[in-house]
Amino acid sequence: MIIKKSLFVLTLLFLSGSISFGQYKISQPNAIPLHGEWSFTLDPAEMGLAGKWYESKIDGNRFDKVTVPHCFSADLRYQFYNGTVWYRKTFPWKTTSGKRIILHFDAAYYKTNIWLNDQKVGVHEGGYTPFSFDITDFLKDGDNLLAVSVNNDTWKVGTIPGAKDNNRINDAFMGWVNYGGLIRPVYLTVEPEVYADNIKIESTPDLIKGTAVLTTKLRIKNVSKQTVSPKVNYVVQFKEKAVALNWKIKSTSISAGQTGIIEAETSLSAAQVKLWNLDDPNLYHLTAIIGSDTISSNFGIRKVEIKNAQLLLNGKSLRLGGGNRVVDYPGLGSMEPDWLVEKDFRLMKEAGMEFQRLTHYTPSKYFYELADKYGMLIISEAGNWQLTPRQMDNDSMRTKFRSQFREMVERDWNHPSIIAYSVGNEYESKSQAGLKWTKDMIVNARELDPTRLYTFASMFLNTFPEKPEDEASQYVDFISSNTYGNHAKVLDHIHKLYPEKPILISEWGTRADDKGGEIGQAQHVRDVIAEVRKRPYVIGTSWWTYNDYQSRYHGTNANGYRPWGIVGPDRSLRPAYKSYQDEMSPVLIEKVSFKSGEQGSHQLVLKLTARNDFPSYAIRGYSLKTANGSYVIPDLNPGESKEFTIPLNGFDKKISLTLMKPTGYSAGIKEIELK
Hints:
The protein is of the alpha+beta class. About 15% of the residues lie in helices and about 35% in strands. The strands form 9 sheets. The protein has an 8-stranded parallel beta sheet. Strand 29, helix 8 and strand 30 form a beta-alpha-beta unit. It is globular and about 85 Å long.
């Protein structure tokens, strides 16, 4: 979460009373929202550009009215449409000298053209990442007309994501719906002529000494007409209290019209360091002050490593369940209002989905903010979905992917929850093009962010390549394999190929309408996890998918949905949800004895064991919740057992125990017979 503040804008907003963002999270407190009512129309004959539908003289009465953020594919009036649409909005403005006005789109699917007051502002390609334009010179006093054309036709071989160029039947359709429109918030920010555009925060802890080194790279744009040498002050807070630090700042001169980077470094003592962990997600807040402008972001101090085919967080081994989440909800399409993000986060967290690649593209940044705050490990992936060798060799496709990847990384590089990036999903990784793509894109990505691990989701490891160099997983930090069957043999073969690299099953699962139905789906969870527990080199299992989703790909049901989820489209729970929750609970709870006392006063003695197979991690600060109260349980290392006594009152024959994480989320429910 990177936050911009301008004293001028904050004053303007409070005077106007316009700090209102509705039900969509915007991380910029100085944002001037442009969502709400817009004019809208389809352009199936592609007449809008020639007809200059972006001009103010166009008859606005011929447009419909919609509410932005808007997903026209989920709007009943336009749900079967594929092509170009137009949005228009008029807003008042009073120009101010010495300020720059930036127009922001958190995302628009897929190709977007922007005009302001009849003039072309710019174009952007990519459906899930943010982009912005400086519109200062396009604005005027009074009413301003913003016009936007958006095209969602990504059933093409040149878009990312998009169709494959292999002439196979149905491969014109990607695996999920190309939900189109202004799917995330649109807003303005007001900046001084010298302003902070972005900040990258890197924290490196010394796990032995308990100290940490903090470095920042502050990107500053100088839109003034003279060279500047900005002075920067840094403030770091932990739990809203300032952390006293001494900074070393490299002074930099930035020429007129140029962008510069100011680097700074400081050290934190052992007393000042609180590590970010899965169940103890400590967050710091850093603010950089440059004149009247500020930029700030949360960050966490943690160390992620791969050693001896294990994933280590702060030196401790972790093995975790996970799940892929497709951004899809009835009536919303790919829009993500706050309530839906919060609902999905809670359901995933309480199912034991702690480590996953969320999906094949960049979801709302609010999900990552919750993951930072409450603990979750995420692999973030840009939209290379099943690209063919010809596509991976195409210079235009490579350029588009790098652009989307950069936008993803620069938005999210301060989130401690993101521990790795993926450079694609299910592309032909045994081909020469796939090998070259993987190597090149990871090298390029490390230049952007050398602090993360790198991987990609392979489906070709299931074909049992003979040598490590036959498949592109040779270039990754850990293996990600999409495996739908024959799990034991596939996992053993992968481990034989790459014995030093841990394995994440990045996709696995079965549909709720396959043979055996929902009960069979729930049993599949138990069967595969039983195999995973025998293989200590498997660090994670990310179920495909947490939720059902709409698609036009072959095999989709007549109702438009693919029922892979452990929850339905409306998030109703299937039996597989409870099965997954049970299997992913990190603590085994067994009754040792039940002693009945006088007047309904009893004692229940339990044996608590932290799992040592899967999932497996240290238990700190957990509690057991009953109808009568909550009881903090002893800390447990993986494989460790301790007895624990709970006082009970009443004459119930059965008690329900809910294992609670220190962050307030359930980690499993156990029913105990009292006899």
